[in-house]
Each structure stands twice: as C-alpha cells, then as structure tokens.
Amino acid sequence: MGFRMGIVGLPNVGKSTLFNALTRTAAAQAANFPFCTIEPNVGEVAVPDARLDRLAAIAQSKQVIPARMTFVDIAGLVRGASKGEGLGNQFLANIREVDAIAHVLRCFEDGDITHVEGRIDPVADAETIETELMIADMESIERRLANLARKLKGGDKEAVAQDRLLRLALAALNDGRPARTVAVADEDARLWGQLQLLTAKPVLYVCNVEEGSARDGNAQSARVAEMAAGQGAGVVVISARIEEELAQLPAEDAAMFLEEMGLEEPGLDRLIRAGYALLGLQTYFTVGPKEARAWTIRAGTMAPQAAGVIHGDFERGFIRAETVAYEDYIACQGEAGARDAGKLRAEGKSYVVQDGDVLHFLFNT
Questions:
Q1: What is the rounded CA–CA span in Å between residue 105 and residue 205?
Q2: How far is 183 from 179, CA to CA, in rounded Å?
Q3: E strand or H helix that includes residue 358
Q4: Which residue has the higher pLDDT, 154 or 183?
Q5: Residues 309, 312, 316, 317: is their CA dihedral positive or negative?
Q6: In this structure, is the dihedral angle defined by the CA atoms of residues 209, 261, 66 and 346, taken in order, positive or negative?
Q7: Which of 89, 70, 99, 73 is nearest to 15 (CA)?
Q8: What single DSSP character describes residue 262?
Q9: Does the pLDDT of residue 25 top 70, yes or no?
Q10: CA of 315: how far to CAs of 203, 309, 318, 345, 360, in Å?
Q11: From CA 24, how far away is CA 50, in angstroms rounded?
C-alpha cells in the first residue's frame, strides 16, 4: 500500500519545481506564470530506506524493491477558487482524490518571480488555501444535507449517521476550524472518510526556502512552524532549487553536493518521513534470495491484513507469520541465524505488525 500526497499551493511558490525534482521527471512544466500546471501530474517515487539495502545484502537478494509513494502536482489555487475562480473547480475535484495535502509555501524573496498576491507572506498564503477549502466544504455539506432529507424521513440508518457527521463538520467550519479538528469515534471512521471533506485531510506544510536556508530555515519558515505547532500539523523545510539540482546529479556527485550545502540528506527523504508520520504509516519487509521488498501498512495493522497487502489470498488463508525484528535479522545475519538464536517468532492473527519486521507468511490456498 502506498499513499497519494497532493502538492498544493498558490501559483509560483515552487510546487512544480519541487514535483519535478521529487519525481525526477520534467512532466510538470515549471514556468513563471499562474496555471502552468493545468492537468494534475502524477509521479511515483521510491521510498528511501537504508534498512532495505542492508537486508538485501545479507540475503544476497537479486532484486531490491522499495515501497512507493505517489505525488500529485495539482494546479495552483487562487483566492475565489471555491467559486470557480482560476482553475478552482478542477483544483477542488483533484484534491479530493489524495490522502494528504502538502501545502507548499513560498518562504523566499525573488524579484524575478512574481507572487499572485503581490507579497511574500507564507502564513497568509496558507490561510488563503485553507479558507477556500473550508468554503468549498461548507457548500458541499449544505448540498448533501438537503439531499439526505428524504432518506432521513424513511429512517435510513446510514443517512442518519451521515447527517450527524456532516453537522459535526459544519459546526466546526462555522466556528472557523477545518473538519480535521473534529473528534471522530472509531466506529464512525469509515463513514467519515467516505465524506471526502477537503479540510478533513491531514496537512503538511512544506516551506520552500532559498538555498542558503535549506538546513536551518529562515524567519518566514519559523513563522510557518509556529502556525503549524498551533494546529498540530507537520512542517518540512526544503529548497526546491537544491532538490532540482540534486535530481540531475549521479549518486556520488549528489552526496558531495549535499555535504557542500551542509545537508545530511535530500529533502525527499525528510518529506516522505513526514508524510509517513502524517498518515501513521510504517514499513515491513519480505526478504529472500529472489528479492528483498518493502511494504507499506498503517501503524496498528494486524498480521493477516499486512499479508493482504501482498495478495488477498494471503489474508484469506492466513495461518501464521514467521517474524524477525529488523535489528535481530541484522545482528543474526539473516533468517537462519535468527532462528538458531531463538529470535524468529511464530505470530498469529492477533499480532500487530511492528515497523521494520521481516515477515514470512504461511497460508492455505
């Protein structure tokens, strides 16, 4: 399982430049004018994980297959998008299809690159986007409530539950709060997700800074971090220009370039980790001589459902999962060594898979 992160922001904040760098493609046209990205560009990237390479080296795996993450570069939003201004309707439709939102905020000064609002204020930019999404949600909820009226009279149980959840969301929005601030009971989680409210999606703020501020950020990114802390949202500081240069370099040259810039890793690594944390995702591995592979699951996933990520038959016929913790696999130099050391465990249907577990599933066909 992967996940789709929509890259959103006002025009000319560096969205497409970042997308091009992250996906190592030129699929999104980066230009100094609004709406250069008209169709949502989709790119898949490998999730960097040094653990996978270590496991593959021990098992002498012929293939190394990392987990994948999908980025969606969505057309720039402008004030009035909820009323159809700019490419508003298209923007709102595209954003409903992603799992999380990365708000790219311009935190750099550059007189050669125009700003659609005529000023550099990342906090105000974030508020502009949030406001448009909130307005769109309010209008959508009001339409849905009206459409539910007939079903409510007939006593439809799901309609009653939808009505209750929609009214909870509307109350938050009327109070100036996004839908993600609503506390949703576990039993309502599935139905809540089906509502596809724009402001219910988790948010990560991506501060696009000038090259010299890529390591420590600047005064503008500090303001964003303060805003995010108040919302319980995540923040990543990145220089899209640096990421663009890195994307064009061979691995050895990229490592030297990072060292020269005083950076320990590419921004992609930080962005993916922040995205994983945002959605509560984690990784488990399957390792053998044929291939070493990383699989993405949500934290708290039980063994049968983790097996189902590979194939539905694995989940349906699940018997047990032979399990070795990553640290034990490394220390014992593989599955055989872990078995001899008593570190290989047989886990059943109630086992909650841990991040880094190396698993081998047994199942009935």
A1: 7
A2: 9
A3: strand 358-363
A4: 183
A5: negative
A6: negative
A7: 73
A8: T
A9: no
A10: 32, 8, 5, 19, 13
A11: 20
Q: Using an 8 Å Cβ cutoff, are 309 and 297 in contact? A: yes
Using the structure block, give the residue that is written with the tokens 């293939």.
63
Q: Are strands 68-73 and 41-46 parallel, antiparallel or unpaired?
A: antiparallel
Residues 6+ apart with CB under 8 A from 279: 3, 99, 100, 202, 298
Task: Give residue 332's identity as a one-letter amino acid code.
Answer: C
DSSP state letters, 271-284: HHHHHHHHHTEEEE
- Pairing of β 358-363 and β 234-238: unpaired
**Per-residue pLDDT reduced to its tens digit, 286-311:** 999 999 999 999 999 999 999 999 99
Q: Which residues pair with 238 in a beta bridge?
A: 208
Residues 6 or more apart whose Cβ sits within 8 Å of residue 143: none
Return all residues near 76 (Cβ < 8 A) that are at least 6 apart. Answer: 9, 10, 11, 12, 13, 15, 34, 35, 37, 86, 87, 91, 116
How many residues in total does the chain contain?
Answer: 365
CA dihedral in degrees (320, 326, 329, 332; nearest 10)?
-130
222-281 tens-digit pLDDT: 999 999 988 888 899 999 989 888 888 887 898 899 988 889 888 888 888 888 888 889
